[in-house]
Amino acid sequence: MDVAIVTYADLPQLDANESPLLPALAALGLDARPVVWDDPKMDWRVPKVAVIRSTWDYHLRREAFVAWTTKVGRLTRLYNPPDVLRWNTHKTYLRDFEAKGIPFTPTVWVPRGGSVDLGALMRERGWETVVLKPVVSAGALKTYRFARAQLDAAQACLQSLAALEEVMVQPYLTAFETEGERAYLFFDGAFSHAVRRPPGLKDTPRGIQQPQLFEPLAEELRLAEDVLAAVGQPLLYARVDVATDNEGRSRLQELEATEPSLFLNLDPAAPARLAQAIARKL
Ligand SMILES: Nc1ncnc2c1ncn2[C@@H]1O[C@H](COP(=O)(O)OP(=O)(O)O)[C@@H](O)[C@H]1O
Ligand SMILES: [Mg+2]
Questions:
Q1: How large is the average pLDDT for residues 139-143?
Q2: How many CB atoms lie within 10 A of CB 164?
Q3: Contact 111, 166 (CB under 8 A)
Q4: Does residue 213 have a pLDDT over 90?
Q5: How many CA atoms lie within 13 A of 30 on its CB side?
Q6: To test ligand 1's pocket by mutation, which of 55, 201, 240 has the most ligand atoms within 8 angstroms of CB?
Q7: What is the rounded CA–CA span in Å between residue 7 and residue 55?
Q8: pTM of the model
Q9: Superfamily name and number for 108-171
Q10: Binding pocket residue ranges, ligand 1, CB within 6 Å
Q11: Which of 102, 98, 166, 97 lies closest to 132, judged by CA?
């Protein structure tokens, strides 16, 4: 086996977004196969490289996943590298970008076991609606939206989330409902394609229903490139998610360098670009 495409037990044959990678690697003469990350029978010395794609249960047991990346990183070449995965699976990584002057969705960080007075915060910051989410999450799990009128419920939710782990409090960005968020995809540092996506939060209005190819905005592409430059090491794959704040400014929402959908099915040339980037690592 040349390339292990790493997925999880519920999706042993990969997602439709990701499966075009297999024929693209085969076209380069490479033997690539999906492998479930926590399959106890897998010998990780066998593949020449392992590329994480759809490990969509990692956030339910991050410690085990991070330990796995360290172990596998010693047995084969794992992408992205284990130190990047450890960093990127805990959303406090976003503070590193904030410290480097990258515009990032305004966030108040509530430490584990800590608290803030949400009513006072919302008044001071002029936030009509807030989003609460834990620092380890994916697919909008445990991500909640509350308006000022729901303050008691919001405060109770914050306390119960913060009892378990650090929590992010953000203003609710209404542009998610109309414009969605933009995903800028990069392979081996080179821009590949951009996708506009509907909000991941359920029960919110959605101006777009399905992810769709998107003509990159020059200003957002620059922001995405600044984000990657600030990482300080090259990434085999990266998705820079950009949102519009309530003042109309583009901001970093997330850098997805662990297991993002890369929307390979939306751009016919994208699978070959990623396959070539992987082949260069062999
Ligand atoms: N500040 C925010 N304003 C509006 N919607 C948000 C905000 N933060 C998160 N969301 C919604 O929750 C979803 C998931 O949040 P996100 O920060 O992208 O984390 P993840 O993708 O890791 O679950 C987003 O797609 C969006 O719909
Ligand atoms: Mg997201």
A1: 90
A2: 12
A3: yes
A4: yes
A5: 26
A6: 201
A7: 5
A8: 0.97
A9: ATP-grasp fold, A domain (3.30.1490.20)
A10: 105, 131, 137-140, 143, 170, 172-173, 176, 181, 199-201, 253-254
A11: 166
Residue 218 Cα, ligand 1 centroid: separation in angstroms? Answer: 23
CA distances from 157 to 107, 114, 273 (A): 17, 13, 43
Helices and strands (DSSP H and E) totals, the chain: 9, 13
Question: What is the CATH architecture of 175-257?
Answer: 2-Layer Sandwich (3.30)
The encoded tokens of residue 142 equal 């445990």
- Identity (one letter) of the amino acid at 125? R
Pick the closest to residue 238 from 87, 66, 15 (CA basis): 87
What mean pLDDT is predicted for residues 101-113?
A: 97
Binning pLDDT at 50, 70 and 90, where does residue 203 land? confident
Q: Do domains 108-171 and 175-257 have the same CATH topology?
A: no
Each domain of the chain, given as residue ranges in start order, spans 3-88, 108-171, 175-257
State the sign of the Cα–Cα–Cα–Cα dihedral 267, 271, 272, 277. positive
- CA 105 to ligand 1: nearest atom: 1
Q: How far apart are CA 127 and CA 118, in angstroms?
A: 10
Q: CA–CA distance from 57 to each of 81, 141, 199, 252 (Å)?
A: 19, 11, 20, 24
Q: The domain 3-88 is classified under which CATH number: 3.40.50.920, 3.90.1010.20, 3.40.830.10, 3.40.50.20?
A: 3.40.50.20
